[in-house]
Amino acid sequence: MEIALGLEASGQQFIWVVKKDENNGHESSEDWLPQGFEKKVEGKALVIRGWVPQVQIIEHLAVGGFVTHYGWNSVIEAISDGVPMAMWPALADQFYNEKLVIQILGIGVGVGVSKWARFGGERVKSEAIETVVKQIMVGEKSEEMRSRAKKLREMARNSVKEGGS
């Protein structure tokens, strides 16, 4: 619910991929979406239920940012495609990855989660989602992150070329 409210309030176009309910193969949107949400964001948002080809979405030129839990694969995919990230770590190495991306590489913004949690975790409010989405999508800071992300993309691509590092 908080994610939906934050994404809508950001005013940005978005794709939101959500997992289907494992128990019955479909979702119950009334449990996690504000009433009328999909109608309100129609034309500027896409809510996809189930699996998507994440790499193909992230590498699309129209993608300006990526909200991620900061698993290493997602970080590498975003860096390889030059996309700034909004960080939402939950467990394991994700907090270290967040520090790398935000403090060292300078291509991310955190939602404010600070404690490791296998289940549940810290609650993130819609205002935090709205803020980080705007930070990676709009303004001078987002342009700086995007520029650094593009440089890192080139470095990553050059490293795997013939004779690369």
UniProtKB/TrEMBL annotation:
One Pfam family recorded for the sequence: UDPGT
Family matches, as InterPro entries: UDP_glucos_trans
A molecular function GO annotation: UDP-glycosyltransferase activity
Keyword Signal: no
Keywords carried by this UniProt record: Transferase
Family of this protein: Belongs to the UDP-glycosyltransferase family.
Name of protein: Putative UDP-glucuronosyl/UDP-glucosyltransferase
Organism: Rosa chinensis (China rose)
